[in-house]
């Protein structure tokens, strides 16, 4: 093989090697997340993936050839978008219709209020940078780590900002998962099982955490909570489109005369997310195939989170300081008290 041809193949080889390396780590992560103790805590493979990736990236990165970094970066960026698009296969219009208007009101009200108030408090009161405030708010408002990944892709934020946001999801989502069922069983939350399911689905951060919390109550609660949670996930698409329009207008402000107006950053992966949700609603994919596609998608998302963790440095996370934690705590209180009030009004 000639020298120029070898040189041309080298970047591709490095990319593939980097992707395969992340894939092997992700495979180990999936096995780790399946351990009963970890699964009971509601830690999805996505969350375990970013934690393991961060540990590797900060303490063992020297064991990976530096040239493979291009494959790690591709996994954290490109594969991420593909995986988020296929996540639409978890949602159907029929599911959203099942919980009716109360579930929809709670989902929309919580998502919009937490996202807007969180961004405002984060940037104006706590003086956080825009991306960190939005990512932290999105993780609390919509669907935890998956929302952080989707928003990170549109914002083109630095990896450590996403890692910080995911860390808040892990902390306060886990607290919610154990606290809410305990308060309910103690009789401190005046709700029937179905209404409590709407509350859980509307206020807990991660899908896995919602399932973990609701399964402690009963099948009715679990079904309703999961559907309401997936309704929040469905709101990801319009919100990403609105974010793209807002980013374009923000970038256009202050342009010098005659300067080219920036293009609208259309999140195509979000459009395909909606397309796959409609395909799932049409019920044309055989159940066995659908189950396989969902499992592959979770694995792809786990790869993206693991790669994101590898690219994150603890030193960068420390710069965020206690302000991010303060914002996440404020949003936790909003979800708890605001969510409870909204559910009591809407149901």
What does the main sheet amount to? none
What's the number of extended β-strand segments? 0
Strand residues, percent: under 5%
Q: Percent helix among the residues?
A: over 70%
Terminal Cα separation, in Å? 70 Å
Give the rounded overall mean pLDDT. Answer: 86
Write a structural description:
With 347 residues, this protein is an all-alpha fold. The protein has one domain (13-63, 71-250, 264-346). 79% of the residues lie in helices and 0% in strands. The protein has helices at residues 3-33, 36-40, 45-59, 69-86, 93-125, 130-143, 145-155, 159-185, 193-203, 207-214, 219-234, 236-252, 268-281, 287-310, 314-318, 321-346. Helix 6 runs antiparallel to helix 7 (145-155) and helix 9 (193-203) runs antiparallel to helix 16.
Record the SSE blueprint:
Elements: H1 3-33, H2 36-40, H3 45-59, H4 69-86, H5 93-125, H6 130-143, H7 145-155, H8 159-185, H9 193-203, H10 207-214, H11 219-234, H12 236-252, H13 268-281, H14 287-310, H15 314-318, H16 321-346
Helix pairs in contact: 1-3, 1-4, 1-14, 3-14, 4-7, 4-13, 4-14, 5-6, 5-9, 5-11, 5-16, 6-7, 6-8, 6-16, 7-8, 7-12, 8-10, 8-16, 9-11, 9-16, 10-11, 12-13
């Amino acid at each position: 093989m000639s020298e120029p041809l070898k040189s041309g193949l080298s970047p591709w080889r490095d990319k593939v090697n980097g992707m395969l390396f992340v894939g092997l780590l992700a495979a180990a992560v999936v096995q780790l997340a399946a351990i009963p103790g970890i699964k009971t805590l509601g830690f999805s493979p996505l969350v375990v993936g970013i934690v393991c990736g961060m540990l590797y990236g900060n303490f063992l990165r020297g064991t990976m050839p530096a040239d493979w970094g291009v494959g790690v970066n591709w996994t954290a960026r490109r594969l991420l978008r593909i995986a988020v698009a296929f996540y639409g296969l978890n949602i159907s219009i029929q599911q959203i219709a099942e919980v009716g208007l109360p579930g929809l009101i709670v989902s929309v009200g919580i998502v919009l209020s937490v996202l807007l108030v969180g961004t405002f408090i984060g940037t104006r009161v706590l003086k956080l940078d825009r991306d960190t405030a939005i990512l932290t708010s999105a993780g609390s408002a919509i669907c935890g780590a998956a929302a952080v990944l989707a928003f990170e892709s549109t914002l083109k934020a630095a990896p450590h900002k996403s890692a910080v946001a995911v860390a808040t999801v892990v902390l306060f989502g886990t607290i919610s998962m154990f606290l809410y069922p305990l308060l309910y069983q103690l009789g401190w939350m005046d709700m029937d099982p179905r209404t409590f399911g709407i509350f859980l689905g509307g206020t807990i951060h991660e899908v896995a955490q919602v399932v973990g919390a609701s399964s402690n109550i009963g099948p009715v609660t679990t079904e309703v909570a999961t559907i309401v949670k997936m309704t929040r996930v469905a709101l990801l698409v319009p919100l990403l489109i609105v974010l793209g329009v807002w980013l374009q207008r923000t970038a256009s402000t202050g342009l010098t005369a005659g300067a080219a107006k920036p293009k609208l950053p259309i999140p195509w992966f979000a459009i395909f997310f909606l397309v796959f949700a409609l395909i799932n609603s049409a019920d044309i994919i055989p159940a066995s195939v659908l189950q396989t596609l969902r499992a592959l998608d979770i694995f792809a998302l786990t790869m993206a989170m693991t790669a994101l963790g590898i690219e994150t440095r603890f030193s960068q996370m420390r710069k965020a300081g206690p302000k991010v934690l303060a914002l996440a705590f404020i949003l936790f209180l909003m979800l708890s008290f605001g969510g409870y009030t909204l559910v009591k009004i809407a149901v």
